[in-house]
Amino acid sequence: MMQTAARPKPWTARDLAILALMLGVCGWIFREPLADILHIGSRDTEQSHIFLAPFIAAWLVWLRRARLRFIRVQPSLIGTAVVLAGCLLSWWGFESDTQIAWHGGALVAFVGVVLTMTGVQPVWHFAAAFASLAFLLPVPGMIRQQISIPLQSMATEITYTCLELFGYSVSKLGNVLVINGEHVAVAEACNGMRLVFSLTLVVYAFAFSTPLRPATRVLLIALSPLVALLANVIRLVPTSLMYGMFTPAQAEMFHDLSGWAMLPIALFGLIGLLRMFRWLELPVSSYRLVHS
User: Fold this and answer.
1) Does 158 lie in the same domain as 24?
2) Are residues 128 and 259 in the same domain?
3) Which of 104, 137, 170 lies at the terminal end of a domain, its last residue?
């Protein structure tokens, strides 16, 4: 006689305890890659998106909290298969010295633990939140350089042009601006391109926090490097002037304070993009977030 799949049932305290225990065991097994992720995020400013990702995922789940009623206890072998796949991926990453696989396998295993208790329902209802967890992974240095270095050069060129248009005497030597005889290295003065992945995560959160059409979301995410570039230039122009015209202590203070403005500037830039799309009468909005 064929066995039928277990019928979904509401959550009980016992089910939640089992899930918590399974997640705890998974955390202990993968304690080394998880600790390495935290270590990288704490020492490297270019990896600051690691600490932002959990809050974005929680925010996206909160926005879709009405969907939680569809999540039932439904043990599934799919989750077990995902856990095993995560273990193999992490093991292979460790043996082959492929850091992203070592880290990524741990995250895959955590997702598999949840699916073991629930089946694939959470994936369908909270796809945006699950996808945002990919930002927990440290980005390999080669990829960071391929993205940030060209953007940094563009930021330097645009800043140089803006300062000239504003009437300041400035010259450019590579990524170094010379203002009033002071050499201002863009990488040292205000390398906001180090935050490009954090800004991309902010764009992602904005796109999936707003009832937009899928095509609009893809477009916003694709434009995220340009949003990061714009935010960096807005910060770089006054910061370069501070380094060139004021004392180093004053310039450093302004540099640190202006760093907090990067993410709000990017957010306002996104709002401006949406308003421009609507002004152009482009179809950007979806009427119901549940269809996102």
Assistant:
1) no
2) no
3) 137
Side by side, the strands of the sheet bearing 176-179 are 170-173, 176-179, 182-185
Helix crossing, 31-43 with 13-29: angle to 10°? 70
Task: List per-residue pLDDT tens for the chain, 292 residues long.
Answer: 334 445 778 889 999 999 999 999 999 999 999 999 999 988 887 788 899 899 999 999 999 999 988 899 998 899 999 999 999 999 999 999 999 999 999 999 999 999 999 989 888 899 999 999 999 999 887 777 777 777 777 888 888 888 888 888 888 877 788 887 777 776 544 555 566 788 888 889 988 988 888 888 888 888 888 887 888 888 888 888 887 777 778 877 887 777 777 778 888 888 888 888 888 777 777 654 444 4
Inter-residue contact 217 to 128 (CB < 8 Å): no
CA–CA gap between residue 9 and residue 75 (Å, rounded): 10
- Nearest Cα neighbor of 229 from 201, 262, 204, 254 is 262
Cβ(117)–Cβ(18) under 8 Å?
yes
- The 3-state DSSP class for residue 135 equals helix
Q: Bridge-partner residues for 178, per DSSP?
A: 171, 183
Q: Do the Cβ atoms of 107 and 136 come closer than 8 Å?
A: yes
Lookup: tokens for 199? 């800004």
The last residue of a domain, from among 137, 164, 192: 137
